[in-house]
User: What shape does this take?
Amino acid sequence: MNNFKALVQWLKQAVTDKEQFHLGYADESSEFVRFNHAQVRQAGHVKQASLNLKLINDGRHADLSITLAGEPELDRERLADGLQQLRETLPLLPPDPYLLLNHNAWQSHNEQLRPLPELAQVLEDISQAAVGVDLVGFYAAGPISRGFASSDGAFGWHQANSFNFDFSLFHANGEAVKASYAGHTWSSAEFAARLQQVREQLEFLGRPLHNLAPGQYRAYLAPAALEEIIGIITWGGFSAQAIASKGSSLQKLYAGEQSLSPLVKVDEQISGSLSQAFSTEGYPRGDVTLISAGKACGQLINSRSAAEYGLSTNGASSDESPSALQMAAGSLAQADILKQLGTGLYISNLWYLNYSDLPAARLTGMTRFATFWVEDGEIKAPVSTMRFDDSVYSLLGSQLEALTAERELLLSASTYSQRNTASNLLPGALVKRLTLTL
Amino acid sequence: MFDHHATLKKHFSALRTTAEFFSLRYVRESGQYLSVRKNVAEPPYLNHDEGAMLTVRLNGVEAYAATHDISLAGLQAALERAEQQARRILPHALLDLHTQQVSSDVADYLSPDLDQPFPSLSDCYQLLGDESASVPKDERLASWEVSLGTTRVEQTYLNSAGAELRQAQRFVYPGLSVTAFDGNDSQTRTLGGTNFGQQGSANVIHRFGLAGAACQVADEALQLLLAPNTPNGPRDLLLMPEQMILQIHESIGHPLELDRILGDERNYAGTSFVKASDFGHLQYGSPLLNVTFDPDIPEQLASYSHDDDGTRATKQFLIRDGLLLKPLGGALSQFRSGLSGVANSRACSWNRAPIDRMANLNIEAGDKTQAELISGIEHGILMNTNRSWSIDDARNKFQFGCEWGQLIENGELKGVVKNPNYRAISAQFWRKLSAVGDASTFKVLGTPNCGKGEPNQVIRVGHASPACVFSDVDVFGGDA
Assistant: This one.
């Protein structure tokens, strides 16, 4: 934090009276280990830090991302070069009618510095627990920091240590179960128990495959499977700009022409989540109810959309996607899932979803990892990979029978550019009809 | 250009290690993304990024450390972290690389026209603004955006065996998108964006045809709004290059990646329906199918002289006359599998390690003009420009959707249809290839957005293809 604060101090004295700035900061020091066949396939360490500088002058603004070197004098030099580049850029731009600045000097601070596990211990635990099983996976661990400061005196800091071991166990027949062990404190016993649980699920996958014909089936979507559906909906679904420009898959929900089941309540719950409580645009992020009793409620609104569409910003990210989404629990007890499913599909995960018809919220995707055929409340056999094609208004609307009482916190394992801090807290969903097509 | 090279070489020669082999890969990237949305200039996004990855081989085990600190002290510290990682994983390592050969090549590679200045920021905004303003005034046109992205990359690879490889490249991505809405349905028509990018200078923008394109794109969005849904049922399918690139990418490119076949990606990107024993034996497609790994088309996105492990890249047939010959596997995967591959070990930046990636993966042109392709179809549909893609983790069962459809009846193009989708199985689909367009239908395209790997990487890939016809494919429309 001291490095960042020093850069902020320098920038405050470097800008003129007419200039304003936003300065974002991100760094991480990450250990990455890939496993294949329960051994280490690739391992390394990545140390990176970057600034995002927005310079504003006379209604004009531009953004510049700069990789830092980690050496104070050189970093100050790079920031000075960046400031100069933006000063030369702004006169070439027209004033931005959608620039909406937050002049509040808000403060936010969150630090979690619990000690991280020793890699040697982690490797030993994984190696021991995975004896005799084909494990493939990815371990990522280390500290992550995010910061924000503005020329108006706003300052936010978020720092957290975490690890995420995302893995799968493969049966010799090619079928697999996926799981993860993630958090702040690595416990060898807890991990061994988690892996043992997954080993037990793997045994079901050794049974002969049940081949399904395309058609309509009752289905239970476990939280990780529901996360894939929620994940693609959040691709612009709740975005104020996407809704206004007719690029949202939920445009009919927001127009009041469609509804979901009254069981469905969805919130962006930043407070208490693992994500930072401020946006890269300099706004504190608020909790937002997005869907209530199956009807559209709030949208995710960044400052640009607020200015363009006459709305109030809730500190949404630049792409107006959620990062701490929660879906309300239902009443279906974990122990009753198979019984209430009766005969149908138990789907642990879905994969590679996309739209068949975006305005109609019609999705397609694949089953992946541990999908079972259930008869009279008993798991009978694994099911070969199948494609579904169905509407959100059906799956989470007319055909939604129940949501589970227990929810699962799913931490993002995404590491595109940097380790992601997003999470979803979701129940499982029992649906009366899922359409399989291939 | 390469102004860091002398310092990097000096630092590299000063590094101290007990490793039997080590390498340094330095990457510097700068770029800008400009767009005008509904006649309002969005603020520009500029970036500067640089860093280096040090890789060591110690007792036959490789490990890496990437750092943003490229001072001698920073590089030395990263080298030591990599050594420490290699020691830690030694008891658990999957691979013994004692006998793997390393590169000692020396070469430079430059994008075409790199010496030509790129239009100024003002000129770029003028072009985007003019195009945005030429979108017709029609209240059904709900949104439109014209964009231009450029990325300039310099990379230096040095290793302890004497390799010295430098690349300087510029990538240009023009794009145009218009969405029409009639109060119920919305339809989007695009040009470029994630379907188009090339190496070069301002000539890329001209080749792309951005200037003057907005009217036609807007008109096509409105036509789609008025069009009926694509009918359901089997038809012959004429795919234009803007959809062929997705078809090649998902159902030839990914399944032929050797690291997937070796199981590395099973926890994330997936596996493959292709087995190592299939190379040299499997009839992947009809005899009309010829697929190449081709790093030699200068403007294509992934043209280069060497990959990121230092292997020299040359044009190779992966599939010839429909027969599967070679995987997309770099030096390491070739060493592990004993199969012959190509130079496709690539990293998205300095902070990610090279893995098997697509590069330029192309379908060679055939002998039919577009008119001949259409006239050979009795009951079919033309589809253009990908908008939806979904395929299983073994890259077999797929469903793809396009923006634009046009029915074909008795050898003639008929009316426009909206929401054209099709589904099939890769292992069978390419055997239905019944006609391949000639050079006049061939386009050099590509995408900057191919995701794969743990940690995740998104990388540029090039695909060039003629228009192609597939017989008897399951086609269907949307709900609206």
